[in-house]
Design goal:
The chain is an alpha/beta fold. It has a single domain, classed as Rossmann fold, CATH 3.40.50.300. Helix content is about 30%, strand content about 25%.
Length: about 250
């Protein structure tokens, strides 16, 4: 079981992340710093090629930064060796990609519990019931996975991360392949998921409208943070943060 569950007030702190590739040490990220606390959402937005994907991979433990550190719920990810980093990533970091990465040969219930089964763990019964209700997955449990819509696949992937009791949730291009109405619903669901289960949430997107659903907006350009904005505490308008970076 994860040493720190998402309800433990563990933050994600990325400090001075820089990443270079190749023998020419081509810089892709330059001194990027982020802090995300449980139940709060940060949107990292920027055009294709701005460094979003590389930053996601550094936060997820898939890439080791050239410089800087990533600390998640008190554990310095960048200080772990490859084996320990792989185990940490598998058990304590949830990443949801646009494809959802469900196995088509398994039904929804088996997909939902697969990471726990693989790790020899059982789902917390109370957490399972909450996840099924909050993410509206209960009615999908006996469905064949190929019959799901993209939005339903993403809800299952989110519920799976919640059941893992991950300490951090990273979502890549949350509105990709969704129509405008479904995309807005999915973004609201992500915020609800973060708040309900105390997950630090980071959204990565080239879609500037995603900024309107975040508590904090970080704009990347050419691997550098060029703008940061906090969502006003009393703001009920989902477009306010997006307006700030327009």
């Amino acid at each position: 079981m994860s040493a720190t569950c998402p309800m433990s007030n563990g933050a994600m702190i990325a400090d001075g992340i820089s990443k270079e590739f190749g023998t020419a040490r081509r810089p892709v990220l330059h001194d990027v710093t982020l802090r995300v606390t449980p139940g709060r959402c940060t949107a990292v937005v920027g055009p294709t090629g701005s460094g979003k994907s590389v930053l996601l991979r550094c936060l997820a433990g898939l890439e080791r930064p050239t410089r800087g550190s990533v600390r998640i719920a008190g554990t310095e990810l960048t200080a772990l060796d490859e084996g320990a980093r792989t185990e940490f990533r598998r058990t304590r970091i949830g990443v949801v990609y646009p494809q959802a990465n469900l196995l088509p040969q398994l039904d929804v219930a088996d997909n939902l519990l697969l990471p726990l089964d693989t790790a020899g763990r059982r789902a917390d019964p109370e957490l399972l019931q909450r996840a099924l209700d909050v993410l509206d997955v209960r009615a999908l449990l006996e469905r064949a996975t190929p019959s799901l819509t993209r939005a339903e696949e993403l809800r299952v992937a989110l519920a799976r991360t919640v059941l893992q009791q991950a300490d951090l949730l990273l979502v890549d291009e949350p509105t990709a392949a969704l129509d405008a109405i479904t995309g807005r619903h999915h973004l609201r669901l992500l915020r609800q998921c973060s708040a309900e289960f105390g997950l630090p949430l980071v959204l990565f997107s080239a879609d500037p409208s995603v900024a309107g659903y975040a508590d904090r907006v970080v704009v990347l350009q050419d691997g550098r943070v060029v703008q940061e904005r906090e969502r006003p505490a009393d703001c009920g308008c989902e477009s306010a943060a997006a307006e700030h970076i327009a």
